[in-house]
Design brief:
Elements: E1 7-13, H1 17-28, E2 36-43, H2 50-56, E3 63-68, H3 73-83, E4 88-91, E5 97-98, H4 100-112, E6 116-127, E7 131-133, H5 140-145, E8 154-156, H6 157-162, H7 176-187, E9 190-203, H8 208-214, H9 216-223, H10 230-273
Length: 274
């Protein structure tokens, strides 16, 4: 019997047997499970079958588990979204947790705004850091400088299709969401912000993001060399050129101020000696 789901939560999972239990528990808290499809892609976990056993223990009717050879984060997300039958997608990392409000508000905004390809919200960090992260309204200049929108978004599947999904050939994994966000914007899709805590983000040692940040320059060079991001590269160069100019101007002003202050000090010392 075919079920018409409203939204599909796609969870790529690699050696996350313990954490994925929390992720799934958070998704199962959503009260309207009949509207919700869950797809977990076990991306070749090599932890002696532990993650596979955890995932295979679930029996929920709206949960699909896919086991595949390790192909990387982008490929795992793409696989899950390809299998998704709902018009809207939430990519949820296996170590994070989803809040029901995200599903309700995100799907409503996509229903009301056909030009919007992505909805995003605030998050609450837990683990090694505990704080609320307020992301803020969409700003393309800010996005071009640095990715500030996490992978956990409410994504229109048609928007994902229009840019052929996540890049599966990134030289280092971790910036797939930044790359996707920019390609969506320059394809003409709009973004919508929800000023609420919509999911919980686990901060931990040795995460994928930590490793990708070590290779930031390599990834930036790769992303901004793409033909469909030529405009983004031009804007990025102008933004940083302007920023360098402002910093240099500020530095010059500071140096001038120091010279004036030094001269005043010399004058005052001379006056008080008399």
């Amino acid at each position: 019997m075919k079920v018409d789901y409203k939204i599909s939560v796609v969870i790529p999972c690699y050696n996350m047997g313990d954490f994925v239990k929390d992720a799934l528990a958070s998704v199962f808290k959503y009260p309207k499970q009949k509207d919700l499809e869950i797809i977990v892609v076990n991306d070749g976990s090599d932890d002696e079958g532990y993650t596979k056993r955890i995932l295979d223990s679930y029996t929920a009717k709206n949960l699909t588990v896919v086991h595949q050879k390790n192909a990387g984060l982008g490929a795992a997300r793409n696989k899950g979204i390809e299998l998704a039958t709902a018009p809207y997608i939430i990519p949820l990392d296996a170590d994070n947790k989803l809040r029901p409000v995200y599903i309700e508000r995100g799907t409503a905004l996509l229903d009301e705004n056909p030009e919007v390809g992505m909805v995003y919200g605030d998050n609450r960090q837990f683990g090694m850091s505990e704080q609320d992260i307020k992301v803020g309204e969409f700003n393309v200049a800010r996005l071009i400088k640095k990715n500030y929108i996490d992978a956990c978004v409410v994504l229109r599947k048609r928007a994902w299709e229009s840019v052929k999904g996540y890049d599966e050939k990134m030289p280092v994994m971790g910036y797939e969401d930044w790359d996707l966000n920019m390609r969506l914007f320059f394809k003409g899709w709009r973004f919508k912000y929800i000023p609420l805590v919509c999911y919980d983000y686990r901060v931990r040692e040795n995460s994928m993001l930590v490793n990708s940040n070590r290779n930031r320059e390599l990834l930036i060079s790769y992303i901004f060399s793409k033909p469909d991001l030529i405009q983004a590269k031009i804007l990025r160069d102008k933004i940083f050129l302007s920023q360098d100019y402002e910093n240099e101007l500020k530095s010059i002003k500071n140096r001038k101020f120091m010279r004036v202050a030094f001269n005043i000090e010399k004058i005052l010392k001379t006056v008080f000696k008399q």
